[in-house]
Write a structure and sequence with these properties.
Largest sheet: 6 strands, mixed
Number of helices: 6
Helix content: 10-25%
Distance between the termini: 35 Å
Strand order of the largest sheet: 1-4-3-2-5-9
Shape: globular
CATH architecture of the largest domain: 2-Layer Sandwich
Order of helices and strands: EEEEHEEHEEHEHEEEHEHE
Strand content: 25-35%
Number of domains: 3
CATH superfamily of the largest domain: Protein of unknown function DUF3822, N-terminal domain
CATH topology of the largest domain: Nucleotidyltransferase, domain 5
Number of strands: 14
CATH class of the largest domain: Alpha Beta
Low-confidence stretches: 1-7
Radius of gyration: 19 Å
Mean pLDDT: 91
Length: 279
């Protein structure tokens, strides 16, 4: 039995009504979240987030948890015009188009991800950069979603994150250092004028691990922690140990300014959280 904290679910709703709705969901071994939006205006209507403590041990157990959520949450028990799923995991790598062969995906992951012969490997084509994200999706969850909704679209979280941040920062003339925080890993991305300079995902267990990867990236790119600006996104607060140790070494820190004001008056969600699903 997986023990989950009593206050594991948080929800934000508006009073707006829509006849046609889209469903976007994001899942990882750390949690599950979904956003229901107006199909025509794209306005968010409902957002719910489930945090798993401790993290789920396997994709099989994650599916069991997701099935229970769908069975008990009435917001998910309706018809949707479009369904979009985001797989959030570290089982991925970024491959430039120049060396990409869609018919031979296995070699791209073998040095960074432990793969099995039975693993299904797929890829996402990026909208902005000439590259593809090669990754292992949770096929069992895809099958469950197909049984419930029929055809749907899915992508890896890094694909969505990279494309959104490049669009967000395309007019910035200085290098932008973004850190997207999740409970057990962080995505580090550096870009300038809509061009990707660096992207990687790092797993961390302690705050010392966390700051090490940030400083390691800065050192590799010859960026001075006393000068460059670091922008936090995701599951991090100013009162957290992660923020405190980062501020010890990086002088200029701020949180992402939201594109969407959906969380502006929320007590449960920060404006810079859930950038992938909402903003």
């Amino acid at each position: 039995m997986i023990k989950v904290k009593q206050l594991q679910k948080k929800t934000k709703k508006t009073s707006a009504f829509a006849q046609y709705k889209n469903l976007s969901i994001q899942f990882s071994l750390d949690g599950f979240s979904f956003c229901i939006s107006n199909s025509e205006t794209k306005e968010p209507l409902i957002f719910s987030e489930y945090a798993f403590f401790p993290s789920i041990a396997s994709p099989e157990l994650l599916l069991e948890k997701i099935i229970r959520i769908f069975d008990t949450n009435k917001d998910l028990q309706q018809d949707f015009t479009k369904v979009f799923a985001i797989h959030q995991n570290s089982l991925a790598t970024l491959v430039p188009n120049k060396i990409f062969d869609r018919n031979n995906l296995v070699p791209y992951l073998k040095y960074t991800v432990k793969t099995l012969k039975t693993d299904f490997i797929t890829y996402d084509l990026h909208r902005i950069i000439a590259a593809n994200t090669v990754y292992i999706p949770y096929v069992n969850i895809n099958n469950y979603l197909f049984q419930n909704f029929g055809e749907f679209e899915y992508k890896h979280h890094s694909t969505v994150l990279i494309d959104k941040l490049l669009t967000y920062s395309e007019k910035d003339f200085e290098e932008q250092f973004f850190v997207h925080v999740s409970p057990n890993y962080l995505d580090v991305m550096v870009c300038k004028e809509g061009k990707l300079l660096f992207y990687n995902t790092f797993t961390y267990n302690t705050k010392e691990d966390f700051i090490y990867y940030i400083l390691f990236t800065a050192e590799q790119l010859q960026m001075d922690p006393n000068i460059f600006q670091l922008t936090f996104i995701g599951d991090i607060k100013k009162e957290s140990d992660l923020y405190s140790i980062t501020y010890t070494y990086v002088r200029n820190i701020h949180f992402m300014n939201p594109v969407n004001s959906f969380f502006a008056d929320s007590e449960d969600f920060s404006n810079h959280s859930n950038f992938i699903l909402i903003n």
